[in-house]
Amino acid sequence: MDAAIEARGLVRHFGAVAAVDGIDLTVPVGSVYGFLGPNGSGKTTTIRMLLGLLRPERGTVRLMGGSPRDAASLARVGALVERPALYPYLSARENLLLFATLAGMTGHEADRAIDEALGVVGLGAVARRKAGGFSTGMLQRLSMALVLLRDPSLVILDEPTNGLDPGGVVDVRALIAELARSGRTVFLSTHVLTEVEQLCDRVAVLQRGRLVADGLTRELLERGQRLAIGFDTHEEAARAAAVLAEAAIATEIAGDDKDALRVSLDGPSPSAINRLLAEHDLHPAELVVRRASLESVFLDLTEGV
Ligand SMILES: Nc1ncnc2c1ncn2[C@@H]1O[C@H](COP(=O)(O)OP(=O)(O)OP(=O)(O)O)[C@@H](O)[C@H]1O
Ligand SMILES: [Mg+2]
What CATH fold (topology level) applies to the domain 225-302? Predict the structure, then answer.
């Protein structure tokens, strides 16, 4: 098995709304996969179909090599989609014990799994405090402990940092990084771009129920790279623009004094561009590669869609 999740041609409507409109996903084992999209783009609907919580109208899902309706595949998956029902009058530990019991664990096995999960989410010290007194961040960690209880190989999280304060966000992100280090596959939906940049080696970008991009996060970021070329005068910049246009390289005039050019780095390398300019006796005062933020790439991708 190479793919932890394999979905083909998923479609789901709600009335006239195509919430998910033909999605293919391949999530390799061991990856941290970001599922990025604005509100209402179909992230939760997709995740519910991946987990067998919602039946797709069309398409197929393989989860850990099996069907999402198969208990053996689901046993290897920990998921946080809707907020789980936690009992406020029970302690963190008692809440976990209840779920462990439901999952068929008993005695030492349950104790060990609970201690382990509490340790990973950093709630060991407050394990005996009632969940009702927990902050939003602590509740989110307790929910994550529930997810980890059965030591899942695949963890699916729907916007795990939603509604947390900055401290809680940092904690949950650190926890996700830790899950990845321990070799688990993580599939994570978010509308926060920095989250994907920080955590995910792969990303799929969703817009109105369709994927507008998917691949390595690094490659997606490279796609948006720009070269900034500064000159001493705007005459030089204009001449350089003409030289590059001749070579079918599109540029954009920039700078307050119109003495700089911006070039998208989809095709030519910076050194090739520099060489071409030198052949025309143009010598930039400055040549800098600007890495695009995922945000600008995302906006480029979703513009006009
Ligand atoms: N149970 C439902 N009944 C009717 N429409 C629904 C239902 N669930 C989702 N939708 C619609 O399907 C579309 C996709 O919703 P979905 O919840 O999957 O988006 P999302 O990407 O998870 O959004 P968010 O970032 O707000 O969580 C939206 O237009 C939403 O209104
Ligand atoms: Mg959602």
Answer: Alpha-Beta Plaits (3.30.70)
